[in-house]
Amino acid sequence: MNTDKKKAVVLLSGGLDSATVLAVARSQGFAAYCLSFGYGQRHAVELEAARRVAEAQDAARHLVLSIGLDAIGGSALTDAIAVPKAQAGTPPAPGIPVTYVPARNTIFLSYALAWAEVLGTGDIFIGVNALDYSGYPDCRPDYIQAFETMANTATKAVVQGQVRVRIHAPLIDLTKAKIIELGAGLGVDYGLTHSCYDPPAHGFACGRCDSCRLRQRGFAEAGLTDPIRYWPQ
Asked: Residue 150: what pLDDT?
């Protein structure tokens, strides 16, 4: 790893979008400091995928923090609430789904902001998307802009003129198919990623949750084969 590279904190879930964002950050010349969270999610297998992705893409460091959002609950990903399922090809239901985790991106970005300040950088990458997404309010452009504005008033490094915070959201205006095409062009191995909200067994995806269906549609529209394994339907 070239220590002379500029540094960036990259939020890395282990999913398709965050793996693509990591590749984008590296293509822009950043040394990537990847940050993942064990937050009590039912699909904690994604943390192993994050480890694989960080290693494959030569991250400068991969930090995993445990923050236990399951103590708060309120989401099908962190509480005893069923993950919605539908047949492949069915679009997500309108509205904000029960897989929304209260304030998750705000919490994640706040940790990223703290680590970025320690690293001496203002660059933070996140894989939010406002087109092919599940209706989460913290994936919208106005949310990203609002957080960036807040961050540029909130830290010692900013106040002292050492850095200016920039929240990079390079996927925010892309369809899932375009995200996959972008990542494929940057050499992302999507076989290392995990997207399923409710994996039925280790190494498999359910193929029926919102995240699986968006992923499958994206690969189909991109004309590419999804390399992960799905549970037999």
From this structure: 97
pTM, rounded to two decimals: 0.95
**What is the total count of domains within the chain?**
1
Percent of the chain whose pLDDT exceeds 90 = 87
Question: Of the ranges 82-91, 156-165, 193-202, which is most confident?
Answer: 156-165
Q: Is 137 helix (H, G, I), strand (E, B) or coil?
A: helix
Token couple for 8? 């960036």
Task: List Cβ neighbours of 115 (8 Å cut-off, separation of 6 or more).
Answer: 9, 33, 35, 63
Q: Which two tokens stand for residue 223?
A: 């004309």
Mean pLDDT of the chain: 94
Please give the Cα distance from 174 to 225 (Å, whole number): 19
- Assess if residue 80 is contained within a domain: yes
The set of residues, in sequence order, having a beta carbon less than 8 Å from that of 174 and lying 6+ positions away, is: 129, 131, 182
- CA triple 139-109-185, angle to 5 deg: 60
Q: Is the pLDDT of residue 57 over 60?
A: yes
Which range marks the domain in which residue 25 is found?
6-222
Which one-letter DSSP state was computed for residue 66?
E
Tokens of 174: 């892309």
CA distance 105 to 98: 16
In a domain, 231, yes or no: no
